[in-house]
Amino acid sequence: MPATKAPSLLMNEFLKNEIGNSKRVLDVGCGDGAMALYLASSLNCRVDGIDLDKGRVHRANEKFRKRMTKGLALCRSCDSENIDKKFKNETFDAVLIIHTLHHLADLSTIFPKIKHSMRVGGKIFVGEYERNFGEKQDNCPRFSSNKIKSILDTSGFGHIRGHNVHKNFIMITAVKGGIK
Fold first, then answer.
1. Quick one: pLDDT band at residue 134, thresholds 50, 70, 90?
2. What pLDDT digit, counting tens, does each position of 22-65 carry?
């Protein structure tokens, strides 16, 4: 029987391959910084993480300080609604919103701000569990693949695609400017 890879390893490999030569990445809802640390170290890029939980931000920065071998990762306490105030226009080559979409308040306001922070040709990655997968916890809404695509389309992103990263997980990518 062939060994199967853990979902987190599949996610890491997918993002590493898709992000590729990006030099600046934003991780919205970075939590303890595990993804930021992996990407910064494996791609030798800069990853800026934001999260509302100040304790997790502190733990992420401690992790970066102790384990960073190459690249740069920084985590800040920031509400996603303030992305346009925290970062300059056209700062990021890639933006990650992984396991976070259901925590964001006003998607119709947040996505244009995220788009504004991205460089033309930059790629956004939105990943969530399938709408009907798992328990409903914390009254968090779940999103279908079509709903995520619609949000990205309405926000002006182009080249919107779905990816099969692992079972029961939705990964949608899109590009600012609709090129690439």
1. low
2. 899 999 999 999 999 999 998 999 999 999 999 999 999 999 99
Q: Which residues neighbour 87 within 8 Å (Cβ) at sequence distance 6 or greater?
A: 26, 48, 117
96 bridge partner residues: 27, 125
Determine contact, residues 168/130, Cβ cutoff 8 Å: yes
φ, ψ dihedrals at 52, nearest 5° = -80, -25
Residue entry with tokens 């709408």: 131
Q: What angle do CA 120, 124, 125 make, to 5 degrees?
A: 165
Stretch 84-103: mean pLDDT: 91
Fold of 9-176: Rossmann fold (3.40.50)
Confidence (pTM): 0.90
